[in-house]
């Protein structure tokens, strides 16, 4: 699998794990268009924390590199990393490409 | 029956002093113990694993937990015990010593607790126990930074208790008095004796005094006990 596919799967896995804990009717759609943060997002703040932890851990374990998805750099991006799954994938790839 | 045969316990500062006593206790009670210290290990036991880590270094702490995840080790109980103490009047306290106390006595418990909580949330069970000090209440001269860090440790535990409560992870603090350790031997004995003489229970702590409260906080039955601080010896 290429990096994009691995990162996308890490995020999807985090969302599936979150869905395991959510009641029927509250489960979130798993797609690259899913909004993670903002007025249209279906995640509350604690669910988002849970997803961030799982994604950071997954990236660290898969790529042996620590990434922070909530630092000042992340929050100052033109497109916020949590606006959608796609934006988060793009941002993580950007971080992984940085040495 | 062993108290902790199903549990994995991470103890910082496990190579000597109070941390070593706590590590030996958990091993005797059947736990798997992950010892973390800057020093090499000095505990030989089949269920003891030692990691030489500077617990105030965020990269080293994350690498430690990454390594634990890779070996499928889930931490059930954390004992934030590692501490450093430089007792000196503020005006002549070396800044490096003050910074080291913040790093080891406060930043390290924060880093260890949050990384452990990330694994505890999967099992929805966890105990985080901080080793505090009577200094946070008695506020002795010469211990400005140490006492401030230990007071902050209580606040840290109380806030983490709120954040982690929904994951059934409790966070509590044990405020110990004086016990014979290398750390205590750094301090003037007459000064310590004077402090101890003023306590409601005017004696030095025994190891069992400490283990008693650690067991209480770690107990399955203490699932409804969080954001609490217990001081030994009647310190208040």
Task: Walk me through this protein's architecture.
The complex is a heterodimer of chains A (99) and B (236). Chain A is mostly helical and 99 residues long. Chain A has one domain. Helix content of chain A is 56%, strand content 0%. Chain A contains four helices and no strands. The model of chain A has no long low-confidence stretch (mean pLDDT 90). Chain B is of the alpha/beta class. Chain B has a single domain, classed as NAD(P)-binding Rossmann-like Domain (Rossmann fold, 3-Layer(aba) Sandwich), CATH 3.40.50.720. Helices cover 42% and strands 17% of the residues of chain B. Chain B is built from seven helices and seven strands. In chain B, strands 3-2-1-4-5-6-7 form a seven-stranded parallel sheet, with helices on both faces. In chain B, strand 1, helix 1 (17-28) and strand 2 (32-37) form a beta-alpha-beta unit. In chain B, helix 1 (17-28) packs across helix 7, helix 2 runs parallel beside helix 3 (95-123) and helix 3 packs parallel to helix 5 (144-164). The longest helix of chain B is centred in the middle third of the chain and has 29 residues, at 95-123. The chains are: A mainly alpha (99), B alpha/beta (236). The A-B interface holds A 46, 50, 53, 57, 60-61, 64, 66 and B 59, 62, 66, 69-70, 118, 121, 166.
Which secondary structure elements does this structure contain, and how are they paired or packed?
The complex is a heterodimer of chains A (99) and B (236).
Chain A: H1 3-21, H2 45-63, H3 72-75, H4 85-97
Helix pairs in contact in A: 1-2, 1-4
Chain B: E1 8-12, H1 17-28, E2 32-37, E3 48-52, H2 58-70, E4 77-80, H3 95-123, E5 126-133, H4 135-138, H5 144-164, E6 169-176, H6 189-197, H7 207-218, E7 229-231
Parallel strand pairs in B: 1-2, 1-4, 2-3, 4-5, 5-6, 6-7
The CATH class of chain B is: Alpha Beta
Query: Which protein chains are joined by the largest interface, and how many residues does each one contribute?
Result: A-B, 8 and 8 residues
The best one-word shape of chain A is: globular
Named CATH topology of chain B: Rossmann fold
Strand content of chain A: under 5%
